[in-house]
Design a protein that fits this description.
155 residues; mainly alpha; three-stranded mixed β-sheet; 3 strands; elongated
């Protein structure tokens, strides 16, 4: 978050992300998923971006950050009905060495994707139930809003 806060002050560039995962595994949502974050240039409008903190210049993630990223990505991919080929790195879009560890250790990127796929299967039914419940709640809200609008027109 300090990085984004600093950009606001320096105005060197525009950057944001929907999520940041901290060194203790905390998941912080910075931008709602239905709003655009400035993360990948050409795919900003269709990406959900996640920044992962790492403790040193080598870019290797600690267990808390890594594990919670796997968890978050698996749930987001299930919720939005995404295919595994839609899981990409910043590098895959811009060529930037980001995330450094996964760019410089392609085998570890493949392992990460394997864990995401495993957890997607584990949580698939639970995530689908959540998705369906949220759709029903949204439909109910829309009906209530329409009813309120109709009542206002009548009065």
């Amino acid at each position: 978050r300090d990085y984004f806060e600093n950009l606001k002050d320096t105005q060197q560039t525009y950057a944001s992300a929907q999520f940041v995962i901290g060194l203790e595994g905390e998941i912080i949502q910075c931008v709602p998923c239905d709003e655009m974050a400035y993360c990948s240039n050409s795919l900003n409008e269709i990406c959900i971006s996640i920044e992962m903190c790492h403790p040193d210049e080598w870019g290797n993630f600690n267990d808390a950050t890594y594990n919670n990223c796997v968890y978050l990505v698996a749930h987001l991919m299930n919720y939005y009905h995404m295919d595994m080929d839609q899981l990409i790195r910043h590098y895959d879009v811009t060529g930037k060495n980001c995330p450094r560890y996964f760019v410089e250790h392609e085998d570890r990127w493949e392992v990460f994707k394997g864990y995401v796929e495993k957890y997607r299967e584990q949580f698939k039914e639970e995530d689908e139930q959540l998705y369906q419940r949220m759709l029903l709640e949204e439909e109910q809200r829309e009906k209530e809003e329409q009813q309120e609008t109709n009542e206002e027109v009548i009065n």
